[in-house]
Design a protein that fits this description.
203 residues, alpha+beta, 9 helices, 4 strands
Length: 203
């Protein structure tokens, strides 16, 4: 049985292959640039992710210039430095702990709760982290849907990165993602996956 044997709203095996079954984490890329228009399209797709109260706390910093890339590479773990310097485009994906400032736009029905969130930073941070990671998944899927490969990494000095790129904005980096068009040999062999029986249960 293939996925399209199930009711899939007309999506094909090719679509599922692009987004899921044949997609790999890329470790090197060609020199083909990733355009500003493509980067903008990634955001236009990921912002449709479902988030609690429509908070949308994920923030994206596109790292493109040589100077910014050098600064970012300095705070990456050793094994991630070279690939970050070589990628055509890199995104710093961060959670905004001040997401509640946008409630009037994103959740006007909850704007009256802004004072509650202002007084409870731990609640704000927990919501920001949980919902940002939902959006991180959508970011990667959006990149794949637009023909790119993504290389997500959490191996970096989080405090140093925030100090260089976020200052006192209330944003905190979660994942750094290299983006581009992969070399033919840029993928490692597919690693194992847990079976349905191992990873799921029905109650």
């Amino acid at each position: 049985m293939t996925i399209v044997d199930i009711e899939t709203q007309g999506l094909t095996d090719e679509v599922f292959a692009t987004l899921f079954t044949e997609a790999h984490t890329a470790h090197s890329f060609t020199e083909q640039p990733v355009s500003d228009e493509t980067a903008e399209a990634i955001y236009e797709l990921l912002k449709m992710a479902p988030t609690e109260m429509n908070t949308q706390p994920l923030r994206v910093t596109w790292v493109r210039s040589h100077e910014a890339r050098e600064s970012l590479a300095e705070v990456m773990n050793e094994g991630n430095k070279a690939k970050t310097l070589e990628a055509p485009l890199t995104a710093i994906l961060s959670m905004d702990t001040n997401w509640h400032h946008h409630l009037g736009t994103l959740a006007p029905w909850a704007e009256e709760r802004m004072g509650h969130f202002e007084e409870n930073p731990l609640v704000r941070e927990t919501m920001a982290r949980n919902n940002s990671f939902i959006q991180v998944g959508y970011f990667i899927m959006a990149a794949r849907a637009l023909g790119l490969s993504a290389g997500p990494m959490s191996g970096f000095n989080h405090e140093a990165l925030d100090a260089r790129f976020h200052g006192d904005s209330g944003q905190h980096a979660l994942v750094v993602v290299n983006l581009g068009y992969p070399h033919e040999g840029s993928f490692r062999p597919r690693s194992g996956r847990l079976s349905t029986e191992t990873a799921t249960r029905t109650l």
